[in-house]
Amino acid sequence: MAVRRVLKERKLRAELEEAERALRHSQSLYRALIENPAYGICRCDAEGKFLDANQALLTMLGYSSKEELLAANRASAVVLDLGVGKSLAGRTPESVRIEPIEVEWKRKNGTALRVRLSGRGVFDERGDFVSYEIIVVDVTEQRALEDHLRRQAWSDSLTGLANHGRLFDVLHAEICRSKRTAREFSLILLDLDGLKEINDRYGHLVGNRALCRLAQILGDCSRSVDTAARQGGDEFALVLPESSAAAAALVARRVRDLLSNDAEEPSLSVSVGIATYPKDAETIGTLLYVADRDLYAMKARRPKVAQAGQVA
Predict the structure, then answer these.
(1) 233 and 133, same structural domain?
(2) What residues pair up with 276 in beta bridges, in sequence order?
(3) Do 221 and 88 fall into the same domain?
(4) Do 46 and 104 lie in a common domain?
(5) How far is Cα 290 from Cα 151, in angstroms, rounded to an integer?
(6) Above 60 in pLDDT, residue 23?
(7) Which of 95 and 71 is assigned the larger pLDDT?
(8) Does 93 sit behind a cis peptide bond, omega within 30 degrees of 0 on the bond before it?
(9) Is the dihedral of CA 109, 112, 114, 119 positive or negative?
(10) Is the pTM of this model over 0.70?
(11) How far, in Å, CA of 62 to CA of 112, rounded?
């Protein structure tokens, strides 16, 4: 029994030493994390109000002191949206572990701050909820860069409209939606008349300006649900969800009228073709073909351009 008691005491001492080493290691990691200028650290109560914050978080939010941040937070209705509810007392730490989520905060000056939050709930020795410990990472610049690259990938560099690839994605999405809802949509193809003559007579800068003028008018004639795109060269398109051929014809007429009334020189005109899904076609390829055929039929009916940008 004496031997067993000695062995048990030795085992308990070893476990205690191991626990103390783990605690010291955990404390050193926590201190390193608190002092890391790249990560914001805060504690908040069950209602999402700040209790404490490190200097990195103060810098992120634009406050000069912890007291100023805590006072501003107490005086406002703003709380941390942790996505896990409010009343958490009595739950286990595992049940309130905060998986990484992204939310938008406001800095002191009112500008937007995109942050990624992660952390855990802290409990006292009785198992009652005490606070959250939250790690805050500023991802504002990262998300802005991603949005910029995404826009570059889907937009035409000259006009800012959707590009050829984006147009095909939109057409595919509209066909899928039309199959679900049984509602038609229309496609308008537009060709800027006489672009080569404009380039030859006035130069490519004026030609590029002519393309941008048409792009601006297409944007002005589009609803928020519509997609205006530049296919390339002098070819443009408008995708009009839940719009009939008659509605598309009205939009096309408005585009032509605005273009003809534009006082900027040289004067511009467009040829237009319209196709409606599923009445005229049931695939992207045939939809484009029908609209393109309609466009060139219109172009053939129009008088020839006598001089750059002007109809004889």
Answers:
(1) no
(2) 186
(3) no
(4) yes
(5) 29
(6) no
(7) 71
(8) no
(9) positive
(10) no
(11) 12
CATH of the domain at 47: 3.30.450.20
Domain that holds residue 84: 36-144
- What's the one-letter identity of residue 146? E
**Tokens read off for 201:** 């007579």
Give the integer Cα–Cα distance in Å for 222 and 229.
11
Share above pLDDT 90 across residues of the chain, in percent, rounded to a whole number: 40
233/88 Cα distance (integer angstroms): 60
Q: Which two tokens stand for residue 274?
A: 């319209």
Question: pLDDT tens, 209-232?
Answer: 999 999 999 999 999 999 999 988
Q: How far apart are the first and last CA of the chain?
A: 116
Tokens standing for residue 81:
């949206």
* DSSP state for residue 267 in the 8-state scheme: P
pLDDT for residue 54 is more than 50: yes
Considering Cα of 133, then 69, then 47, then 85, what sign does the dihedral take? negative
**Cα-Cα-Cα-Cα dihedral sign, residues 151, 247, 190, 291:** positive
Residue 45 has pLDDT above 50, yes or no: yes
Q: For residues 227 and 277, state if they share a domain.
A: yes
Closest CA to 236 of 163, 157, 153: 163
Whole-angstrom Cα distance, residue 69 to residue 50?
Answer: 8
103: exposed, middle or buried (Cβ count in 10 Å: 0-12, 13-18, 19+): middle
* Cα-Cα-Cα-Cα dihedral sign, residues 6, 10, 15, 20: positive
The DSSP symbol for 127 reads S
Provide the pLDDT confidence category of residue 32 given band limits of 50, 70 and 90: low
CA nearest neighbour of 250 among 155, 186, 159? 186
Q: Is 56:41 a contact under the CB 8 Å cutoff?
A: yes
Task: Give the CA distances from residue 236 to residues 193, 213, 229, 279, in Å, rounded to whole numbers and listed in that order.
Answer: 12, 12, 6, 22
Pair (132, 161) in one structural domain: no
- Backbone φ and ψ for 161, nearest 5 degrees, come out as -75, 170
